[in-house]
Write a structure and sequence with these properties.
The chain has helices at 3-31, 161-167, 199-202; strands spanning 50-64, 93-107, 118-130, 133-144, 154-159, 177-178, 182-184, 190-198, 207-214, 217-224. The chain is of the alpha+beta class. It starts with a helix and ends with a strand.
């Protein structure tokens, strides 16, 4: 991809991101309406169902072989400033243009596809000492608010080093190890793994933050040695 194409792609991404951000802000403002008026009557609530857009974007660049003197900036009144986004081609230079037309629609999506909200319940079991290490079994349960469990859902387990160090006065020298870092839930909606921490490190009283996630659904726990 040429440098001009990369700039054009960046411009399109920036414009689309700006539209999406503005749409979210508008919807948040609509949600801020009080549910009831001063007489206790329900207020009308609004939801943006969709937003159609049609973009025509042109990016242009000019390359010149001549040395161009640097401009000296001075203070001038704001109303005298003019900006030309399309550079003017001069003698001895070449000009490149990239044109794009994009049409589409931003569609409002019901949270969780209209289904009961999923939850990730993350917990740790008893600490067991095995040789020179302490081992803790971790359990992640995927269910919804209706207590329905979800089987064969991939759970990821990770050590949150940044969050852990914020809770400790001294840095963690040795990172904990997982028996498995990814595992699907069983028929009961549960995924199990074991995390091992060196004896000398764990007995210092350091706090270890462990995170489990299913897609963008996260849950974390803190593990600490208790004599």
């Amino acid at each position: 991809m040429s440098d001009q194409s990369e700039k054009h792609t960046f411009a399109l991404q920036h414009i689309l991101s700006g539209i999406a951000e503005g749409l979210n802000t508008a919807q948040e403002n609509l949600r801020d309406v009080a549910p009831y008026d001063s007489f206790g009557r329900p207020n009308t609530m609004y939801q943006l169902p969709y937003l159609d857009f049609d973009l025509k974007v042109t990016t242009s660049s000019v390359e010149t072989n001549r040395n161009v003197p640097l401009l000296k900036m001075t203070r001038i009144p704001l109303h005298t400033c003019f900006f030309n986004l399309k550079p003017q081609q001069k003698q001895g230079s070449t000009s490149n243009e990239v044109n794009s037309t994009i049409s589409g629609r931003f569609v409002a999506v019901v949270p969780n596809e209209g289904k009961p909200q999923r939850m990730l319940v993350f917990s740790s079991n008893e600490v067991v000492k095995k040789g020179s290490k302490y081992t803790i079994q971790l359990e992640a349960l995927c269910k919804n608010v209706m207590e329905e469990v979800f089987a064969n859902v991939l759970v990821e387990f990770n050590f949150d080093k940044l969050a852990s160090e914020q809770l400790n006065a001294t840095p963690i020298q040795t990172l904990p190890e997982f028996s498995v870092s990814e595992k699907p839930t069983n028929n009961d909606g549960i995924a199990l793994t074991e995390v091992s921490i060196p004896e000398k490190e764990f007995e210092k009283g350091l706090t270890y933050v462990i995170v489990a996630n299913i897609g963008n659904l996260y849950s974390s726990i803190a593990i600490q040695y208790e004599p």
